[in-house]
């Protein structure tokens, strides 16, 4: 699992995920459900993939059985890496549940497929976090809990994220968890932190938890990748 703070596609992060599969030319699938399958977002995925050694795929949920003869599980099971895009986390998870995509992703994860993504594409893998998926204000959303911790994306770019994350952990609305600045990522192996990588020295990842009634924000040392 490789998660990062922003949903924007970047060559370094997708290349890092590709190499994490251990395959020479991995099948990498983008799932853009959260953005309503935005065409420019999909185009940017293909553009990044053209610069790295992968075979790109896009999984669409807006299909019909006359045109698509493979199940979502069959498509997902053929992939070496899954990249989930940013957007509306709540709507994405609702669609996935209705289509059984959440179950297919869980099976693939347990079979060693590398999962990743940013924003909604990072939040979905955890047990919960704050989201802008509802009107008016940031609110809490439950995730699929592949990693049984909470998560906060956009840690350095949206000023309300950090204090709200602290408050929700302090009041017990969220468990301890991991936060990522927009251009920083955490690589988990078997649910445990393996390493952190960043696109520059100004972006970081953190483990945030409660100790003796106070919030502790523990920096996870990272390596800059280009």
Automatic annotation (TrEMBL):
Any keyword ATP-binding? Answer: no
Question: Pfam families recorded for this chain?
Answer: Peptidase_S51
Looking up CDD domains in the UniProt record yields:
GAT1_Peptidase_E
Q: Name one GO molecular function term.
A: serine-type peptidase activity
Provide this UniProt record's keywords sorted from A to Z: Hydrolase, Protease, Serine protease
Sorted alphabetically, the Gene Ontology BP terms of this entry are: proteolysis
Top-rank taxon, per record: Bacteria
Concerning InterPro entries, the annotation shows: Class_I_gatase-like, Peptidase_S51
The record ties this protein, via PANTHER family, to: ALPHA-ASPARTYL DIPEPTIDASE, PROTEASE S51 ALPHA-ASPARTYL DIPEPTIDASE
Family to which this protein belongs: Belongs to the peptidase S51 family.
Annotated protein name in UniProt: Peptidase E
């Amino acid at each position: 699992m490789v998660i990062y703070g922003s949903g924007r596609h970047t060559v370094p992060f997708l290349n890092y995920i590709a190499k994490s599969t251990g395959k020479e030319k991995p099948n990498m699938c983008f799932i853009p459900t959260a953005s309503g399958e935005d065409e420019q977002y999909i185009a940017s995925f293909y553009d990044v993939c053209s610069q790295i050694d992968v075979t790109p795929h896009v999984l669409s949920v807006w299909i019909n059985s006359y045109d698509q003869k493979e199940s979502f599980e069959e498509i997902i099971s053929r992939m070496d890496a899954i990249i989930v895009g940013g957007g509306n986390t709540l709507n994405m998870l609702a669609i996935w549940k209705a289509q059984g995509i959440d179950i297919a992703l869980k099976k693939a994860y347990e079979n060693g497929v590398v999962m990743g993504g940013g924003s909604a594409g990072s939040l979905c893998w955890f047990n919960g976090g704050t989201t802008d998926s509802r009107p008016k204000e940031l609110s809490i959303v439950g995730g699929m809990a592949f990693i049984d911790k909470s998560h906060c994306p956009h840690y350095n770019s949206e000023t309300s994220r950090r204090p709200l994350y602290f408050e929700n952990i302090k009041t017990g609305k969220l468990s301890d968890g991991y936060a990522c600045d927009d251009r920083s990522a955490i690589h988990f192996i078997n649910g445990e932190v393996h390493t952190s990588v960043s696109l520059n020295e100004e972006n970081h990842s953190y483990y945030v938890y409660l100790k003796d009634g106070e919030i502790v924000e523990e920096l996870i040392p990272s390596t800059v990748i280009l």
